[in-house]
Design a protein that fits this description.
By secondary structure, the protein is mostly helical. It has helices spanning 9-13, 18-31, 33-38, 44-61, 66-79, 90-104, 111-121, 130-143, 154-163, 168-181, 186-189, 192-205, 218-222, 229-232, 244-257, 262-278, 284-297. α4 packs across α6 (90-104), α6 (90-104) runs antiparallel to α7 (111-121) and α10 (168-181) crosses α12.
């Protein structure tokens, strides 16, 4: 287990450039072009929103902590850089990823309980035989080369809270933005600390005086996970800057004096805003129908 991100398997084996990630996905689809043509799927980020919502539903039934949910989302994203979605039962993959993530994050769940809860949510797609989830667990571990330790941006956010004089509202919103970044390719492209700083930047610059976000598309998406975020965050005793403008200026000064990759920060911020704009196109019904179509047609629910 790596003590820090820079020496970790996450940094050494699971970080891509945008071009490498695009080429990897294109190669996957090219291997079975006919199946991809027969069973079209939504844009990757829209599919990620659907996967996230399903994981959150299952996680809430089992009181799973946010970090384990985040780890499960990264497992799913890593796995689908190796395997075509259409060759799997995504519901079984989601349940298995959560089961495995809970083990990794030292909050294990009973396999039979998890299978029963998953069958309650997705009765047409989860087999009652618990050994199927056990087999799928080995499949995930194999495709990820047993590299299961994940570093998250939450720690950086907590460390910077006092240093930057962030108020609890700032941290809550940044926390929810971090939750949302798992719906993008950012976990596979940039370091966790860059994501944390991008989340802080959005929290400070997109929130006007009365704590309501500006813009027509960002509010609904950025606040989608906010309700659960505060329950997970340690309540640090800090002295936030007196007003939002002071905090923004303090953050800008800190950023100018630091060694953060500014281009990576800008790209991350743009990626998050792009996600929020795309979110308006999301349709759970469409995702569910398209997944159900190939799972049933290819007998992947057996």
């Amino acid at each position: 287990m790596a003590a820090n991100f820079w020496a970790s398997t996450q940094r050494l084996y699971w970080q891509y450039s945008k071009e490498e990630l695009r080429d990897t996905r294109q190669e996957l689809e090219a291997r079975d072009h006919a199946v991809c043509q027969q069973f079209p799927l939504p844009e990757v980020r829209l599919l990620s929103i659907f996967f996230n919502q399903q994981l959150v539903k299952l996680g809430k039934r089992m009181s799973v902590r946010q970090q384990a949910l985040a780890t499960a989302q990264i497992y799913v994203r890593r796995f689908y850089t190796k395997v075509n979605v259409r060759d799997t039962n995504p519901y079984l993959i989601l349940a298995t990823a959560l089961y495995l993530a809970c083990k990794t994050e030292e909050s294990p769940q009973y396999i039979r309980v998890l299978v029963n809860e998953a069958r309650t949510l997705w009765p047409d797609f989860i087999p009652s035989d618990v050994s199927k989830l056990g087999e799928c667990e080995f499949y995930l571990i194999s495709e990820m080369n047993s590299q299961l330790i994940v570093h998250h941006p939450y720690r950086t956010l907590q460390e910077l809270q006092g240093r930057l004089g962030l108020g609890q509202d700032d941290v809550s919103l940044a926390w929810s933005v971090i939750n949302d970044h798992y719906l993008t390719d950012l976990p596979l492209v940039v370091a966790p600390h860059v994501v944390a700083i991008a989340a802080i930047s959005l929290a400070l610059t997109l929130k006007p005086n009365q704590g309501i976000l500006q813009g027509s598309t960002i509010p609904a998406a950025a606040l989608a996970n906010l309700a659960q975020a505060p329950r997970e965050m340690p309540q640090a005793k800090i002295n936030p800057a007196k007003n939002p403008q002071d905090r923004v200026e303090h953050f800008a000064k800190w950023l100018a004096e630091g060694e953060v990759d500014i281009q990576a920060l800008v790209d991350s911020t743009q990626e998050l805003i792009s996600l929020y704009e795309l979110w308006e196109q999301y349709s759970e019904k469409t995702c569910k129908e398209q997944i159900s179509r190939f799972v049933k047609a290819r007998g992947l629910d057996k």
